[in-house]
Structure formats: structure tokens, C-alpha cells
Amino acid sequence: MPRALITGVSGQTGSYLAENLLARGWEVHGIQRDDAPDPAIPERVVPHTADLVDFPAVRRVVDEVEPDVTVNLAALSSVAVAWARPLEVAQLNGTAVANLLDAVRSLPDRPGARRGFVQASSAEMFGQAAESPQSETTPIAPVNPYGASKAYAHALVGAYRAAGLRASSVILYNHESPRRPEAFVTRKITAGVARISRGEQSELVLGNLDARRDWGWAPDYAEAMARIAQSLTEGDTASADFVVATGESHTIRDFVAAAFAAAGIDDWQHLVRVDPQFVRPTDATEMRGDAGRIRHALGWAPTKTFDAVVAAMVAADLEP
Ligand code: GDP
Predict the structure, then answer these.
(1) Does 253 contact ligand 1 (Cβ within 6 A)?
(2) For the CA of 275, the nearest atom of ligand 1
(3) What residues does the NAD(P)-binding domain cover (predicted)?
(4) 273: CA distance to ligand 1 center in Å?
(5) Where in the chain is the domain with CATH 3.40.50.720?
(6) I want to staple 103 with a disulfide (CB 3.0 to 4.6 A). Which of 62, 166, 303, 319 is the partner?
(7) Tens digit of pLDDT for each residue in 123-167?
(8) Taking the model in full, what pTM does it have?
(9) To test ligand 1's pocket by mutation, which of 13, 76, 78, 79 has the most ligand atoms within 8 angstroms of CB?
(10) Candidates 77, 122, 169, 177; catalytic one
(11) Which of 15, 16, 121, 146 is catalytic?
(12) Is 207 in the pocket of ligand 1 (CB under 6 A)?
């Protein structure tokens, strides 16, 4: 039974990934920041306490667990928040990954043990990409502190791979679900639309409505990472970078329209207001990914359309 160690296990993608690997029969360990039991961590995950920026504490967990595959999903994951906390984002998304990689590389070899490492990279590394869709070979040119921190970690994973570690960077595009916090625009919209339909909120106040993003279903992205983890325990196929995306892009305005439609509200234009407070200093015009490599290597494909993602999130937020 392979053993995984997941950082960020209480987050949206970490919790779906833990459930996915447990269903595959894996033993799953997770790193959490506080001692208190976290209800967001799936049952049967073995919890370990360490702050990712407490480097010796993280190394102790890695040494104790001796994972076959370590998956790094811990991050300050909001671009909006990263502008306000650039040092924290550099430490948590950047140097903490160096520590984790070094801890995994330092594990003693044991017969049959194949150490793997999976890093959650981000489409934000491409910045204002000159080409669309983007792929694993698109130049990396971030335009915000979040993208810059992810670019550093991405480069580092490449270096450890070149030095012999079985390591994969998964370049994730926006992935959404009812577990998405409201700091992200999709959940802000679906939770807001649900409150508007119940008469608890009068309007949606948003930023840039014209940006185009490639929005997928978070459990599909967890499935992609699970396939990579599985493959890393079996051979070198997955020791590479992989874009995980749907290949389609839609504007934030499209998302708003689909969310109101899913809630049965036809006349919604007067319910949406733009406030400069939510407009970012820089914002990529279009992010759209080409997932051809992972489709060919591991047979992965998204299972939900854009409309189905929006409808599932609105339905969950409308539940009493
Ligand atoms: P990100 O792509 O990881 O930064 O995910 P977000 O969901 O935070 O942002 C996605 C897009 O929505 C970006 O282009 C934002 O500029 C845009 N956006 C527009 N209004 C809002 C808002 O009110 N909140 C957030 N978080 N993003 C917004």
C-alpha cells in the first residue's frame, strides 16, 4: 500500500486528493498547522502538526512518515491576498518548498521504495502569456507576487528532478467546487447569488469582469494529481511538468450570468456592481491551458463542463 504525505490537506484540493488516494487504497498522512482537530481533513488521514515555515518540524514529519509520494498543496493560494502579504507568500510558497524537497531527497533509500514529489504549480506563473492556450513550454513570466513565488518553486522542482528525484509539477488552472473559500471569485459569486435569491444580500460587488479564466472542477484536478502520484510509484512516466486545465476559457461576467441562470434569476444586471477595491494592479487577460500532455501520458480528461461546474456550486450554496 503506497503512503502519501499531503501538505495543505485541509484545503479544497488537498481534501479531495486525500479522499481520492484513500479510495485507491493508499495510506494518507497530512500536515496541519495546529494541534486542534480540523473538520476539513477527511477521516482516516493521519494528521501531523507542523507549520510549513518551521523547517525542522517539517523535516521531522517527513522522516517519521517516510512517504512514497509527498504532495505539496500548502500555499498562500490567493493572488488577491498575496499582494497584501508578499513576504509570507515568498516564504510559504517558495522557501518552504526548498525545505520540503530537501527533506524528501534526504530520506534514506530502502529496497523497493520509490520516492516521489508532486508540486502544485500554477498558471499564474505565465503572467500575461503571449500565447493561448498555454502549455508546459510557455515562457514563465509572472506578474504578481503569487506567480513569482510559484515560479521559484516550479524551477526548484525541475532542478531536483534533474538531480534524480521523481518529481512532477502540476500546472493547475483555476479549479472550483463548493469547498472553495469566498476569497475566490467563483465561490464569492455562487454564495452571493444564493444569498440574493434568499433575500439576504442586495448585490454582488466584484472587480474585473472581463478577465478570461479556464475554470475546472476541483475533484477532476485531484484525480489528475492522484494519477500522477500513482504513476510516480510505478515508474518515471509522471516525472515531468503537466498542465491540468479544461482548454476552455470564460469571463467572470460569463460566470456571473451562469450562476444567476442556475438560481433561476433572469434579470440580474442591476444586481452586480464593480468596485475598484477588487480590481488588481495587474491581471492576466486570458488564462487557458492545453492539457494534451497529461491526456496522452495518463489518460486524464475533465469530467464537468463550465455550466455544470457553476450549477453544482450554486446548487450546493442554495441548500438550506
Ligand atoms: P485566482 O485566479 O487564483 O486569482 O482566482 P480568483 O478567483 O481570486 O480570481 C479570478 C479572476 O477573478 C481574476 O481575474 C480576478 O481579478 C477576478 N475577479 C473579479 N472580481 C473579483 C473579486 O471580487 N474577488 C476575486 N477574488 N477575484 C475577482
Answers:
(1) no
(2) 23
(3) 5-313
(4) 15
(5) 3-176+217-244
(6) 62
(7) 999 999 989 999 999 999 999 999 999 999 999 999 999 999 999
(8) 0.96
(9) 79
(10) 122
(11) 146
(12) yes
Which residues in the chain are classed under CATH 3.90.25.10? 185-212+248-287+304-318
d(CA 299, ligand 1 centre) in Å: 30
Q: What is the 3-state secondary structure (H, E, C) of the chain?
A: CCEEEEECCCCHHHHHHHHHHHHCCCEEEEEECCCCCCCCCCCCCEEEECCCCCHHHHHHHHHHHCCCEEEECCCCCCHHHHHHCHHHHHHHHHHHHHHHHHHHHCCCCCCCCCCEEEEEEEHHHHCCCCCCCECCCCCCCCCCHHHHHHHHHHHHHHHHHHCCCEEEEEEECCEECCCCCCCCHHHHHHHHHHHHHCCCCCCEEECCCCCEECCEEHHHHHHHHHHHHHHHHHCCCCCCEEEECCCCCEEHHHHHHHHHHHCCCCCCHHHEEECHHHCCCCCCCECCECCHHHHHHHCCCCCCCHHHHHHHHHHHHHCC
Q: What is the percent of the chain where pLDDT is above 90?
A: 88
pLDDT digits (tens, 9 = 90+) for 241-269: 999 999 999 999 999 999 999 999 999 99
Class of domain 185-212+248-287+304-318: alpha beta
